[in-house]
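Q: Got one fold?
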Amino acid sequence: MGQQLSNINLKAYDAINIDDVEINYDTITSRNGDENIHLFSWIKTPEDMTTNSIGFDQIASNHVQLMKLLRRDLSLLTHKADILKINSDINAILMTDVFPLISVRCKETIEEIITIMKKQEQLMLNIFLKQNLEENENIDQPITSDSFPETFPEDIDECNINNTNESDDDKQEMEQAKFHVQKVSCFSIQSLTSLLMILIKSAEKNDPTFVQELLTLAIQLCDQIPINSFKSFEFSPIIDNYWFKSLKPLTNYINELSLSQNVMMSNKAIKILLSISIAKASFKDILPILRKLIFNEVNVYNVRNLFIRLNHTMVRALNKMEKKKQQKNNDSDDKFKQAIDDNITSIESIDYLKVIGAFPNSRLTRLNEKEFIGPFVASIILAHIDFYNGIHSIEQFKEGSIDSSISFEFHLDTFEQLFHIIEQLITTKLEDSNIVIRHILTVCVRLFTTHLKFLCTAISTLDRDLFSTSDEWKKAIQVTSTKPKYDIDLSKFSNDKFKLWFDLLLKLISNDNENLEQIRICQEASKAMIYMIDKKVSSFVEKLSFFHTSIIENKYPSLVEQIFLELKKSITLLNWIEVLINDDNTSKSAEKTLASSVLYSFVDVCLNSSNHIDPKHKDQIKHMLFMFQELLLIRLISPSQIETILNDDRTQNELHTCSISYDAISFVINYLTYILNNCNDNDLLNSIFVGLCLIIKTENIFYFNTIQPIIMALLPILVEYLLKNIIKDEYEKNNLYSICWLIGKMTNLMIIGTEQNLSEIKHIDKLKSLLFAGGCEQI
């Protein structure tokens, strides 16, 4: 807010340095009326001088001249600048340049809280529905022709109908034909899998060598299952469901074969399971297979054809992304830009595939078959999964969806599988690992972070940290209850598991060094760690203390970067403020003391030029303090009332209903006193001074009884600050003109008090009666 204070300072400077009209007796009289200038003189009027001053004409004349000079000098002091115009100009700056910034911050904060609550409700609803669906689903229900509707549903994949010149009837007929083709295919698959099951089991008893041929036939069958961008089948979600129900008996049996000691049989079984799980776009099914592949460096898996099909799918996705880029210039919707900006991780996966020769297909076909060992195969699959995750995870989170996909499955087993894979991978030093293992680890940590993001949003700490300490923000967003509407059991995600996950991530963060790949792993682990901290700590202050220690010690640079992002979130700063201004009680006093210590420690970092803190970190802390001070100012106004102030429909009577606790006022006084007494940073001081200029606007923003003790405490400090800096003769640089105005305005406000409220205006006649002569009482 330095620019706003400079503008205020400039207005005060210009007003003082404008040449006034010539001061003479007539000008003074016109300004002040006909009141007697001889009030303190033995000559009361000019007539007295002629009638009562015989023999003293010369003395009387000199006296009158002296009184005129005195009056002129007083007039120069009181009328040199047009104070009303100065006030009007500065008020205009405050209301057009300062208060809108505060109001925008307030609106964004409220929107952030509402977004968190809505996202939590969306996720909890979807988790509830999914759990009920899984409980009620009868997986043994046979598939019959009655399972399919007789008519083609109109809403099936409307988004995939191409924009052609064909009539709607032609399109409907085409889609109807596709639907019936798939319906026939579904029964064909069911019949074929049943036949395969019978043949394999029979061959296993009579001629085990024939099983290999049958498994090859099963692989050819799986190769015919389409892969559509790692999503459910685009033609029909109904077909999607029954296709894989028909394959389930075969899948279960092939899963048993994958555990066989016969290497060839096991490899073919894994290839079949891999093809089905990828086509099914099931992260839950693919993870156990990946875990087997990652730690099997002996067997070779002939899955080149599967990777060729995956590359075709990736090329189609890249073409869609290119179309979005082209539309970006012609479309004002920010969704396209957001979609492009969030594809950085997808590009990284493509780069990895190019480095190892797995993309494009022209290079993939030239790879030696012996290279397709377990970790290599798993890394390619994970690269494709990561590509999909980079494109769709942001959108999925915005929608609050927990639909299963190739990169996501909201289930405890998924978290556990990823945890164990990461745990096993880091048993070897990262610097001793090859590019394949490091890529696998990077993607697994990234996927783990995505899952933690959904989990921590569903189990929000909003109630614990904010709403439990203050009702003011509940009023601002008009919330009556924050309890979940759905009875969902998430107790499986226990604190013991959170601790294990936290410790594992901390190990990953500790491996930060100059290697680019390891730095990337640390960055991904740091993002995950931010989510885990919320779950590991028991209170916001404990989390704040962890943040403070991490920043000061700076052991984990990647984590510190993520912590600063978290500290600059409005919701984090609000939680902090509410702890500091909350009414004292035995249970919270220790938390308030710790939160206060952390705050003043950060302030000292900005004030002390000799400490060891990284200059970039100092700038981050300073920016955080700016936001903190803005939100603290909002808290003095009362966030629930800012909207009505902006709409100019707030009455003075309503203003007086806003009550701020003594503890809140006391904290504000202590904080501002500390800054003014110790701060030598102009940016921080300017932010404070602009805030003080704003809080004296009691006529339509602040409640006089709230700011009165603040002004009383700060006036002597401001005067002392002015006297110390006035010696330097740098009024403009130190904005001393604006501080002079501020001190004068504060003094004026303390003398005359606030303007009349509605009640006083209504009963003005009674207040002027003899009953209230002397006039300090208020009705």
